[in-house]
Design a protein that fits this description.
By secondary structure, the chain is of the alpha+beta class. It has helices spanning 6-33, 39-65, 81-90, 92-137, 149-185, 189-236, 241-269, 272-277, 279-289, 306-327, 362-371, and strands at residues 293-299, 331-339, 342-349, 376-380, 387-393. The chain starts with 5 loop residues before the first helix and ends with a strand. The relative contact order is 0.07.
Length: 397
Protein backbone atom coordinates (compact mmCIF):
# COMPACT_ATOMS: atom_id res chain seq x y z
CA UNK A 1 0.00 0.00 0.00
CA UNK A 2 2.88 2.40 0.76
CA UNK A 3 4.18 3.21 -2.70
CA UNK A 4 0.83 2.60 -4.36
CA UNK A 5 -0.51 5.49 -2.27
CA UNK A 6 2.14 7.99 -3.45
CA UNK A 7 0.44 9.00 -6.75
CA UNK A 8 -2.84 9.58 -4.94
CA UNK A 9 -1.20 11.67 -2.20
CA UNK A 10 0.49 13.82 -4.86
CA UNK A 11 -2.63 14.48 -6.94
CA UNK A 12 -5.34 14.54 -4.25
CA UNK A 13 -4.74 18.28 -3.89
CA UNK A 14 -5.82 18.68 -7.52
CA UNK A 15 -9.07 16.82 -6.81
CA UNK A 16 -9.55 18.89 -3.67
CA UNK A 17 -8.98 22.18 -5.51
CA UNK A 18 -11.38 21.20 -8.28
CA UNK A 19 -14.16 20.26 -5.86
CA UNK A 20 -13.56 23.37 -3.75
CA UNK A 21 -13.97 25.61 -6.79
CA UNK A 22 -17.07 23.78 -8.01
CA UNK A 23 -18.78 23.65 -4.64
CA UNK A 24 -17.85 27.20 -3.61
CA UNK A 25 -19.65 28.46 -6.73
CA UNK A 26 -22.51 25.98 -7.11
CA UNK A 27 -23.72 25.80 -3.50
CA UNK A 28 -24.07 29.57 -2.83
CA UNK A 29 -25.62 30.08 -6.27
CA UNK A 30 -28.17 27.31 -5.71
CA UNK A 31 -29.07 28.63 -2.24
CA UNK A 32 -29.49 32.17 -3.56
CA UNK A 33 -31.66 31.14 -6.51
CA UNK A 34 -33.71 28.73 -4.38
CA UNK A 35 -35.75 31.72 -3.20
CA UNK A 36 -37.41 31.86 -6.62
CA UNK A 37 -37.33 28.06 -7.08
CA UNK A 38 -34.87 28.34 -9.94
CA UNK A 39 -32.08 27.11 -7.71
CA UNK A 40 -33.86 23.92 -6.64
CA UNK A 41 -32.90 21.92 -9.76
CA UNK A 42 -29.38 23.35 -9.51
CA UNK A 43 -29.19 22.34 -5.84
CA UNK A 44 -30.34 18.80 -6.62
CA UNK A 45 -27.84 18.54 -9.48
CA UNK A 46 -25.08 19.82 -7.18
CA UNK A 47 -25.94 17.25 -4.52
CA UNK A 48 -25.98 14.45 -7.07
CA UNK A 49 -22.65 15.70 -8.42
CA UNK A 50 -20.89 15.67 -5.07
CA UNK A 51 -22.38 12.28 -4.24
CA UNK A 52 -20.98 11.05 -7.55
CA UNK A 53 -17.62 12.58 -6.64
CA UNK A 54 -17.69 10.78 -3.30
CA UNK A 55 -18.49 7.49 -5.03
CA UNK A 56 -15.50 8.05 -7.34
CA UNK A 57 -13.33 8.78 -4.29
CA UNK A 58 -14.30 5.45 -2.74
CA UNK A 59 -13.08 3.67 -5.88
CA UNK A 60 -9.85 5.69 -5.93
CA UNK A 61 -9.23 4.90 -2.27
CA UNK A 62 -9.65 1.22 -3.04
CA UNK A 63 -7.06 1.50 -5.82
CA UNK A 64 -4.64 3.64 -3.78
CA UNK A 65 -4.96 2.35 -0.22
CA UNK A 66 -6.64 -1.02 -0.67
CA UNK A 67 -9.59 -0.10 1.57
CA UNK A 68 -13.07 -0.97 0.37
CA UNK A 69 -15.74 1.49 1.48
CA UNK A 70 -19.26 0.51 0.50
CA UNK A 71 -21.67 3.25 -0.57
CA UNK A 72 -23.66 3.97 2.63
CA UNK A 73 -26.66 5.63 1.01
CA UNK A 74 -30.20 4.82 2.02
CA UNK A 75 -32.42 2.91 -0.41
CA UNK A 76 -33.70 5.02 -3.29
CA UNK A 77 -37.50 5.52 -3.29
CA UNK A 78 -39.30 3.88 -6.18
CA UNK A 79 -41.23 6.94 -7.37
CA UNK A 80 -42.19 10.51 -6.51
CA UNK A 81 -40.12 13.67 -7.01
CA UNK A 82 -40.74 14.81 -3.45
CA UNK A 83 -39.64 11.44 -2.09
CA UNK A 84 -36.42 11.64 -4.11
CA UNK A 85 -35.69 15.15 -2.82
CA UNK A 86 -36.23 14.03 0.78
CA UNK A 87 -34.08 10.98 0.08
CA UNK A 88 -31.20 13.25 -0.95
CA UNK A 89 -31.58 15.82 1.82
CA UNK A 90 -32.33 13.55 4.79
CA UNK A 91 -29.61 10.96 4.16
CA UNK A 92 -26.67 11.74 6.52
CA UNK A 93 -24.26 10.28 3.94
CA UNK A 94 -25.06 13.19 1.61
CA UNK A 95 -23.65 15.76 4.03
CA UNK A 96 -20.74 13.58 5.10
CA UNK A 97 -19.77 13.35 1.42
CA UNK A 98 -19.79 17.15 1.23
CA UNK A 99 -17.59 17.40 4.32
CA UNK A 100 -15.07 14.98 2.87
CA UNK A 101 -14.83 16.79 -0.47
CA UNK A 102 -14.32 20.16 1.27
CA UNK A 103 -11.70 18.61 3.54
CA UNK A 104 -9.84 17.21 0.54
CA UNK A 105 -8.16 20.53 -0.37
CA UNK A 106 -6.38 21.35 2.95
CA UNK A 107 -5.60 17.70 3.56
CA UNK A 108 -4.29 17.31 0.02
CA UNK A 109 -2.09 20.41 0.36
CA UNK A 110 -0.39 18.97 3.44
CA UNK A 111 -0.03 15.51 1.92
CA UNK A 112 1.35 16.80 -1.39
CA UNK A 113 3.79 19.23 0.29
CA UNK A 114 5.18 16.61 2.66
CA UNK A 115 5.40 14.02 -0.12
CA UNK A 116 7.20 16.38 -2.52
CA UNK A 117 9.73 17.51 0.12
CA UNK A 118 10.52 14.00 1.31
CA UNK A 119 10.67 12.44 -2.16
CA UNK A 120 12.84 15.29 -3.51
CA UNK A 121 15.28 15.11 -0.59
CA UNK A 122 15.44 11.33 -0.82
CA UNK A 123 16.03 11.42 -4.56
CA UNK A 124 18.80 14.03 -4.27
CA UNK A 125 20.62 12.12 -1.53
CA UNK A 126 20.31 8.76 -3.26
CA UNK A 127 21.52 10.20 -6.56
CA UNK A 128 24.59 11.90 -5.03
CA UNK A 129 26.99 8.96 -5.66
CA UNK A 130 25.72 8.58 -9.24
CA UNK A 131 26.09 12.32 -9.91
CA UNK A 132 29.63 12.26 -8.51
CA UNK A 133 30.60 9.37 -10.80
CA UNK A 134 29.17 11.26 -13.80
CA UNK A 135 30.96 14.40 -12.62
CA UNK A 136 34.31 12.58 -12.50
CA UNK A 137 33.72 10.85 -15.82
CA UNK A 138 33.19 14.22 -17.55
CA UNK A 139 36.37 15.71 -16.06
CA UNK A 140 34.55 17.98 -13.68
CA UNK A 141 32.09 19.40 -16.18
CA UNK A 142 28.62 19.94 -14.76
CA UNK A 143 27.25 21.00 -11.41
CA UNK A 144 27.09 18.83 -8.31
CA UNK A 145 26.45 19.66 -4.69
CA UNK A 146 29.07 17.20 -3.39
CA UNK A 147 32.34 17.03 -5.31
CA UNK A 148 34.17 14.35 -3.30
CA UNK A 149 33.62 10.61 -3.10
CA UNK A 150 33.34 10.21 0.73
CA UNK A 151 30.72 12.95 0.89
CA UNK A 152 28.76 11.39 -1.99
CA UNK A 153 28.81 7.97 -0.29
CA UNK A 154 27.65 9.45 3.02
CA UNK A 155 24.86 11.26 1.17
CA UNK A 156 23.82 7.94 -0.40
CA UNK A 157 23.65 6.31 3.05
CA UNK A 158 21.53 9.19 4.33
CA UNK A 159 19.40 8.80 1.21
CA UNK A 160 18.73 5.17 2.08
CA UNK A 161 17.72 6.20 5.60
CA UNK A 162 15.54 8.94 4.16
CA UNK A 163 13.89 6.36 1.90
CA UNK A 164 12.88 4.30 4.92
CA UNK A 165 11.67 7.44 6.72
CA UNK A 166 9.71 8.52 3.63
CA UNK A 167 8.07 5.10 3.41
CA UNK A 168 6.89 5.34 7.03
CA UNK A 169 5.65 8.92 6.62
CA UNK A 170 3.81 8.05 3.42
CA UNK A 171 2.26 5.03 5.11
CA UNK A 172 1.22 7.17 8.06
CA UNK A 173 -0.39 9.80 5.81
CA UNK A 174 -2.15 7.06 3.87
CA UNK A 175 -3.47 5.56 7.12
CA UNK A 176 -4.69 8.95 8.35
CA UNK A 177 -6.37 9.73 5.03
CA UNK A 178 -7.97 6.29 4.90
CA UNK A 179 -9.23 6.63 8.48
CA UNK A 180 -10.84 9.99 7.75
CA UNK A 181 -12.32 8.58 4.55
CA UNK A 182 -13.84 5.61 6.36
CA UNK A 183 -15.40 7.95 8.94
CA UNK A 184 -16.83 10.39 6.39
CA UNK A 185 -17.44 8.25 3.30
CA UNK A 186 -18.55 5.09 5.08
CA UNK A 187 -21.62 4.56 7.19
CA UNK A 188 -21.32 4.49 10.97
CA UNK A 189 -21.38 1.15 12.78
CA UNK A 190 -24.86 1.93 14.06
CA UNK A 191 -26.08 2.71 10.55
CA UNK A 192 -24.56 -0.49 9.19
CA UNK A 193 -26.19 -2.53 11.94
CA UNK A 194 -29.52 -0.82 11.33
CA UNK A 195 -29.25 -1.53 7.61
CA UNK A 196 -28.37 -5.18 8.20
CA UNK A 197 -31.28 -5.57 10.62
CA UNK A 198 -33.61 -3.95 8.09
CA UNK A 199 -32.41 -6.32 5.38
CA UNK A 200 -32.96 -9.21 7.75
CA UNK A 201 -36.51 -8.09 8.49
CA UNK A 202 -37.18 -7.76 4.76
CA UNK A 203 -35.77 -11.24 4.18
CA UNK A 204 -37.97 -12.68 6.95
CA UNK A 205 -41.02 -10.91 5.52
CA UNK A 206 -40.26 -12.27 2.05
CA UNK A 207 -39.87 -15.76 3.54
CA UNK A 208 -43.22 -15.41 5.31
CA UNK A 209 -44.92 -14.40 2.06
CA UNK A 210 -43.32 -17.35 0.28
CA UNK A 211 -44.64 -19.76 2.90
CA UNK A 212 -48.13 -18.24 2.67
CA UNK A 213 -48.02 -18.50 -1.13
CA UNK A 214 -46.83 -22.11 -1.03
CA UNK A 215 -49.54 -23.03 1.46
CA UNK A 216 -52.26 -21.27 -0.54
CA UNK A 217 -51.23 -22.51 -3.97
CA UNK A 218 -50.12 -25.98 -2.93
CA UNK A 219 -51.27 -27.84 0.15
CA UNK A 220 -54.40 -25.75 0.72
CA UNK A 221 -55.67 -26.37 -2.82
CA UNK A 222 -54.93 -30.08 -2.56
CA UNK A 223 -56.75 -30.36 0.77
CA UNK A 224 -59.70 -28.44 -0.66
CA UNK A 225 -59.82 -30.89 -3.56
CA UNK A 226 -59.70 -33.78 -1.06
CA UNK A 227 -62.65 -32.30 0.84
CA UNK A 228 -64.65 -31.92 -2.37
CA UNK A 229 -63.91 -35.52 -3.41
CA UNK A 230 -64.90 -36.84 0.03
CA UNK A 231 -68.10 -34.80 -0.05
CA UNK A 232 -69.02 -36.18 -3.46
CA UNK A 233 -68.12 -39.70 -2.33
CA UNK A 234 -70.35 -39.33 0.71
CA UNK A 235 -73.26 -38.23 -1.49
CA UNK A 236 -72.82 -41.20 -3.85
CA UNK A 237 -71.88 -43.79 -1.25
CA UNK A 238 -75.29 -45.55 -1.35
CA UNK A 239 -76.43 -44.85 -4.91
CA UNK A 240 -73.13 -45.24 -6.82
CA UNK A 241 -70.65 -47.19 -4.64
CA UNK A 242 -68.11 -47.65 -7.46
CA UNK A 243 -68.01 -43.91 -8.15
CA UNK A 244 -67.71 -43.25 -4.42
CA UNK A 245 -64.82 -45.73 -4.22
CA UNK A 246 -63.05 -43.92 -7.10
CA UNK A 247 -63.55 -40.57 -5.41
CA UNK A 248 -62.17 -41.93 -2.13
CA UNK A 249 -59.12 -43.24 -3.99
CA UNK A 250 -58.58 -39.79 -5.51
CA UNK A 251 -58.96 -38.19 -2.08
CA UNK A 252 -56.41 -40.62 -0.65
CA UNK A 253 -53.89 -39.74 -3.39
CA UNK A 254 -54.56 -36.03 -2.87
CA UNK A 255 -54.01 -36.41 0.88
CA UNK A 256 -50.63 -38.09 0.32
CA UNK A 257 -49.62 -35.34 -2.12
CA UNK A 258 -50.64 -32.65 0.40
CA UNK A 259 -48.62 -34.37 3.13
CA UNK A 260 -45.60 -34.50 0.83
CA UNK A 261 -45.93 -30.78 0.06
CA UNK A 262 -46.26 -29.95 3.75
CA UNK A 263 -43.20 -32.06 4.50
CA UNK A 264 -41.17 -30.24 1.85
CA UNK A 265 -42.41 -26.90 3.15
CA UNK A 266 -41.46 -27.82 6.71
CA UNK A 267 -38.02 -28.89 5.50
CA UNK A 268 -37.64 -25.44 3.88
CA UNK A 269 -38.55 -23.73 7.15
CA UNK A 270 -36.25 -25.67 9.44
CA UNK A 271 -35.30 -29.34 8.99
CA UNK A 272 -35.73 -31.52 12.06
CA UNK A 273 -32.39 -33.23 11.42
CA UNK A 274 -30.61 -29.88 11.83
CA UNK A 275 -32.00 -29.42 15.32
CA UNK A 276 -31.46 -33.04 16.32
CA UNK A 277 -28.07 -33.92 14.82
CA UNK A 278 -26.44 -30.65 13.71
CA UNK A 279 -24.92 -29.26 10.53
CA UNK A 280 -22.91 -32.31 9.47
CA UNK A 281 -25.93 -34.59 9.21
CA UNK A 282 -28.19 -31.89 7.74
CA UNK A 283 -25.70 -30.92 5.04
CA UNK A 284 -25.03 -34.57 4.24
CA UNK A 285 -28.77 -34.94 3.66
CA UNK A 286 -28.68 -31.99 1.26
CA UNK A 287 -25.73 -33.51 -0.58
CA UNK A 288 -27.51 -36.86 -0.89
CA UNK A 289 -30.48 -35.18 -2.59
CA UNK A 290 -28.32 -33.12 -4.97
CA UNK A 291 -28.36 -34.18 -8.65
CA UNK A 292 -24.52 -34.40 -8.76
CA UNK A 293 -21.80 -35.59 -6.41
CA UNK A 294 -21.29 -33.18 -3.51
CA UNK A 295 -18.45 -33.69 -1.03
CA UNK A 296 -19.24 -32.44 2.47
CA UNK A 297 -16.62 -31.64 5.11
CA UNK A 298 -17.68 -30.22 8.46
CA UNK A 299 -14.95 -29.53 11.01
CA UNK A 300 -16.49 -27.87 14.05
CA UNK A 301 -15.11 -28.47 17.54
CA UNK A 302 -18.56 -27.79 19.00
CA UNK A 303 -22.01 -26.94 17.74
CA UNK A 304 -22.42 -23.23 16.92
CA UNK A 305 -25.50 -21.25 18.02
CA UNK A 306 -28.79 -22.32 16.47
CA UNK A 307 -29.06 -19.13 14.41
CA UNK A 308 -25.64 -19.78 12.85
CA UNK A 309 -26.53 -23.38 12.07
CA UNK A 310 -29.81 -22.36 10.48
CA UNK A 311 -28.26 -19.64 8.31
CA UNK A 312 -25.39 -21.90 7.26
CA UNK A 313 -27.87 -24.63 6.28
CA UNK A 314 -30.02 -22.33 4.18
CA UNK A 315 -26.98 -20.80 2.46
CA UNK A 316 -25.78 -24.25 1.43
CA UNK A 317 -29.31 -25.35 0.42
CA UNK A 318 -29.95 -22.27 -1.74
CA UNK A 319 -26.47 -22.37 -3.29
CA UNK A 320 -26.79 -26.05 -4.23
CA UNK A 321 -30.25 -25.36 -5.67
CA UNK A 322 -28.87 -22.50 -7.80
CA UNK A 323 -26.01 -24.73 -8.87
CA UNK A 324 -28.42 -27.43 -10.04
CA UNK A 325 -30.49 -24.89 -12.01
CA UNK A 326 -27.86 -22.66 -13.59
CA UNK A 327 -24.25 -23.82 -13.11
CA UNK A 328 -24.12 -26.93 -15.35
CA UNK A 329 -21.68 -28.37 -12.79
CA UNK A 330 -20.60 -32.00 -12.49
CA UNK A 331 -19.27 -31.87 -8.95
CA UNK A 332 -19.38 -29.61 -5.91
CA UNK A 333 -17.94 -29.39 -2.43
CA UNK A 334 -19.19 -27.96 0.86
CA UNK A 335 -16.70 -27.09 3.60
CA UNK A 336 -17.57 -25.78 7.05
CA UNK A 337 -14.83 -24.82 9.50
CA UNK A 338 -14.45 -22.80 12.67
CA UNK A 339 -11.82 -20.06 12.92
CA UNK A 340 -11.26 -16.88 14.92
CA UNK A 341 -13.95 -15.07 12.91
CA UNK A 342 -16.63 -17.66 13.58
CA UNK A 343 -18.05 -20.29 11.22
CA UNK A 344 -16.84 -20.14 7.62
CA UNK A 345 -18.97 -21.90 5.01
CA UNK A 346 -17.58 -22.52 1.51
CA UNK A 347 -19.68 -23.92 -1.33
CA UNK A 348 -17.71 -24.65 -4.52
CA UNK A 349 -18.76 -26.05 -7.89
CA UNK A 350 -16.99 -26.62 -11.19
CA UNK A 351 -19.73 -25.11 -13.33
CA UNK A 352 -19.72 -22.35 -15.93
CA UNK A 353 -19.56 -19.45 -13.46
CA UNK A 354 -21.00 -16.04 -14.18
CA UNK A 355 -23.16 -15.88 -11.05
CA UNK A 356 -23.93 -12.35 -9.80
CA UNK A 357 -25.65 -10.90 -6.77
CA UNK A 358 -28.75 -9.11 -8.05
CA UNK A 359 -31.13 -7.10 -5.85
CA UNK A 360 -34.07 -9.30 -5.01
CA UNK A 361 -32.26 -12.44 -6.18
CA UNK A 362 -31.51 -15.58 -4.24
CA UNK A 363 -27.89 -14.72 -3.48
CA UNK A 364 -28.89 -11.24 -2.31
CA UNK A 365 -31.41 -12.89 0.01
CA UNK A 366 -28.67 -15.11 1.42
CA UNK A 367 -26.46 -12.06 2.02
CA UNK A 368 -29.34 -10.37 3.82
CA UNK A 369 -29.95 -13.48 5.91
CA UNK A 370 -26.26 -13.56 6.89
CA UNK A 371 -26.36 -9.85 7.70
CA UNK A 372 -28.94 -10.45 10.42
CA UNK A 373 -26.11 -11.76 12.62
CA UNK A 374 -23.49 -9.37 11.17
CA UNK A 375 -22.18 -12.02 8.83
CA UNK A 376 -20.98 -11.47 5.27
CA UNK A 377 -21.38 -13.42 2.05
CA UNK A 378 -18.72 -13.26 -0.67
CA UNK A 379 -19.18 -14.51 -4.23
CA UNK A 380 -16.36 -15.38 -6.65
CA UNK A 381 -17.76 -16.58 -9.97
CA UNK A 382 -15.79 -15.56 -13.08
CA UNK A 383 -17.46 -16.37 -16.40
CA UNK A 384 -16.27 -19.76 -17.58
CA UNK A 385 -14.64 -20.52 -14.23
CA UNK A 386 -15.57 -22.21 -11.01
CA UNK A 387 -17.93 -20.60 -8.51
CA UNK A 388 -17.18 -20.14 -4.82
CA UNK A 389 -19.73 -18.84 -2.33
CA UNK A 390 -18.21 -18.06 1.06
CA UNK A 391 -20.18 -17.07 4.14
CA UNK A 392 -18.45 -15.80 7.28
CA UNK A 393 -20.84 -16.11 10.20
CA UNK A 394 -19.78 -14.77 13.62
CA UNK A 395 -20.83 -16.78 16.64
CA UNK A 396 -21.28 -13.60 18.72
CA UNK A 397 -23.12 -10.51 17.57
Amino acid sequence: MTWRAVPYLLVSVVFGLGWFLVLSVAVPTALTLAIVWVGVPLAMATILAWRGGAMLERRLLWAAFGIKIADPYRARPEHGLGAHIRWLLVDPATWKDLGYLLMLLPLGLVEAAVSVVLLTATGMLLSAPVLYVVFEATNGRGEVIIDNLPGALVAGVFGALMLVLTAYVVRGMAWLHATLAVVLLGGSEEERLRASRARGIDAAEAERRRIERDLHDGAQQRLLSVAVDLGRAQAKFDSEPETARTLITQAHAGTKAAIAELRNLARGIHPAILSDRGLDAALSGLAARAPIRVDVSVDLPERPPAAVESIAYFIVAETLANMAKHAAATEAAVTVIKDHRGVVVDVWDNGIGGAVVCPGGGLAGLADRAATIDGVLVLHSPVGGHTLVRAELPCEW
